Amino acid sequence: MFIARDLIMGNKNFAVSVEEAQKIILDSVRPLDYESISIIEASRRVLYEDIVSDIMIPPMDDSAMDGYAIIADDTKGATKEKPVSLKVTGEIQAGGSIVGKKVSKGTAIRIMTGAPIPEGADSVVRFEDTKEEAGYVKIFCDTAKYNNYRFAGENIKKEDRVLCKGDRLRSADIGVLASLNYDTVRVYKQPTVAIISTGDELARVGETLQAGQIRNVNAYTLYSEVKRYSGIPDYLGIAKDTLKDMKEIFLKALKYDVVISTGGVSAGRYDFVKEIYSDLNIEIQFERVNIKPGRPFVFGKKDNKLFFGLPGNPVPTLTSFIQFVRPALLRLMGATRIQKPIVNAFLEGDIRSIRAYHLVRGYFTVKNNEFYVLPTGNQKPSVLRSMSDANCLIVVPEDVTKVKAGEKVAIQLIDHDEIG
Ligand code: AMP
Ligand code: MG
After folding, report:
1. pLDDT tier, 385 (very low <50, low <70, confident <90, very high otherwise)
2. Whose CA is nearest to atom 6 of ligand 1?
3. Residue 1 — pLDDT band, cuts 50, 70, 90?
4. Hey, is 4 helix, strand or coil?
5. Cross-strand partners of 188
6. Superfamily of domain 342-412
7. Is 216 in the pocket of ligand 1 (CB under 6 A)?
8. Topology of domain 37-56+157-187, per CATH?
9. In degrees to the nearest 10, what's the CA dihedral of 99, 105, 110, 115?
């Protein structure tokens, strides 16, 4: 890979591309170990093992309807006016036994949804198409073979690989695990994530704002994002803009799998994060990305630990988290699918851009099965409101400087699950 650190460090303005940055980050990830947990705790966790079925589901042929188990041939030509009459010889409930129960020519057995199909029967006619009287049932329709009939193993066969190592478990997956009688399951451990805010100007939520202070917003958005991607966040507090304060807090952070800090990475006089990295032997991999917003962005590693120095402004904090930190967290947990889907949408409104991978906050709607997207207002990096109003990011590539209303743009569906 042609990203020599010396070259980057040598040229003060060198910025890696978004793709390069993502690659460098993912190449630095060593997935974590595994643990066994109860399946009821396993939602959104990532499987450490393939799940291969050792049973058939359903285990035997069963009925998909409440009705009568019959021989299809017996109903040939049956209509409402000219029903066929069959002798009812018994009943089978869901969970009931079929021992000693058999359907032979001219007979039927009452059967409930989920009950096993008795010997001899090859079809089920639903109650609505029948009428039972004095031990006989009138069948009002010509019924095909295997009507309302569920075959053994049609849901899952023996040896089917139903879930794969690297899948992030969703509700249906947890249900499938239950159906296969998994009580516990092996999943990757969750990364521990330290969150650090930097800046003399920051006040906690609940504190009275002094002149010149602003709220510490980033710690909250990041905490929420880390939880969303199944990391274990730990907020370490606000570091003042002094080398001493920053070093103290970063020293505490060294035991976590991932350290995310915000602010202090641009060219200001009090932007000390990079200096702290060097001091603590955290190897800086790059310090600028050609992305807007969020150009100053330091990524470092030490042993297997990852250090993300995100920009201070609340929007690039979040958009850079989505582009760079989120995939790393998912990879740490062994997830194979880490891409947010990108689809085309018709732009409603104009966009002026600069020569950077430009992320514009937008709100997409779907009309007549087509995507449309409207930018959500003020796009300054400090305006988190327009991010809160957004449900996607419009991706304007580096070589495009203007997009007009009605043209197609790519949008990243940030609220959608990851795809492979
Ligand atoms: P910096 O890179 O530290 O100069 O920060 C860039 C901008 O982001 C400044 O206007 C900061 O006040 C703002 N900022 C930094 N950290 C936070 C934070 N935790 N919450 C909200 N705004 C922040
Ligand atoms: Mg600052």
Report:
1. very high
2. 312
3. very low
4. coil
5. 34
6. MoeA, C-terminal, domain IV (2.40.340.10)
7. yes
8. Molybdopterin biosynthesis moea protein, domain 2 (3.90.105)
9. 50
